[in-house]
Design a protein that fits this description.
The chain is of the alpha+beta class. It contains five helices and 15 strands. A four-stranded antiparallel β-sheet has the order 3-4-8-5, covered by helices on one side. Strands 9-11-12 form a three-stranded antiparallel β-sheet. The protein has a two-stranded antiparallel ribbon with strand order 1-2. A hairpin with a 5-residue loop joins strand 3 and strand 4.
Length: about 220
């Protein structure tokens, strides 16, 4: 039936999904999964020791930050629900690679999708909410000594009616080099200094990104 399931290592909660029908259109292997209580989550799965090694490295950054008590208490950071990890093993003479699975809150849609909707309605209220919520999330991350480095509409998600900052996998400690990006289609949200090449992470990168997001919302 093409059904699969993942059990969280910390909570023991079981998440089930259909391998094809529940697969999400995004980079990497992601599915919408459901628990017995009817709740949904996003499963991000990568095999170890493959071409996903860089993605796994980024995932571990997000997991480490998501487990920080300050991040867990922040209502405007998309929450890490659990993690599932296995090591390579041999099954009936066949080597099965290990996996790392990040289990996060389900989001209805991203701000980038909202901006494309014809029925989005008045924008003043959403500008205020996004400004306050993302700023609060960034205050937490900056307090943990990291810069998000990718504040853009696609990383601001509506979760149970609340706009939250997501995708902590691009976070870099303040003062360390930012080597990823900028992505051409999101260059507007990248601080000008980053468009020249690798740069040293500083809080200004995030405030610039948020300012550009709010400007985009006001334009809409």
């Amino acid at each position: 039936m093409n059904l699969s399931e993942i059990r969280g290592d910390s909570t023991g909660k079981v998440w089930r999904y259909h391998i094809t029908l529940d697969r999400l259109e995004s980079n990497g292997e992601r599915w919408r999964a459901r628990a017995d209580d009817g709740s949904s989550a996003v499963l991000h799965r990568c095999e170890k020791g493959t071409y996903w090694d860089d993605e796994i490295e980024r995932m571990r950054v997000a997991i480490e930050l998501g487990r920080e008590p300050a991040a867990e208490r922040c209502s405007t950071i998309r929450q890490l629900l659990d993690v599932h990890e296995t090591e390579p093993q041999t099954v009936v003479g066949v080597m099965v690679p290990g996996v790392l699975v990040e289990i996060c809150e389900w989001a209805d849609y991203g701000l980038n999708e909202w901006l494309r909707r014809e029925d989005r309605g008045a924008g003043a209220a959403i500008v205020e909410e996004v400004a306050a919520n993302v700023a609060a999330a960034l205050d937490v991350l900056h307090g943990l000594g990291v810069v998000h480095c990718d504040v853009a509409p696609n990383n601001i998600l509506l979760v149970d009616g609340t706009w939250k900052l997501a995708d902590l996998d691009s976070c870099v400690p303040i003062g360390e080099q930012v080597v990823r990006g900028p992505i051409v289609e999101r260059q507007r949200y990248q601080h000008p200094d980053r468009r020249k090449g690798p740069a040293t992470a500083r809080i200004e990168f995030d405030t610039w990104g948020l300012e550009q997001v709010l400007a985009k919302l006001e334009e809409s």
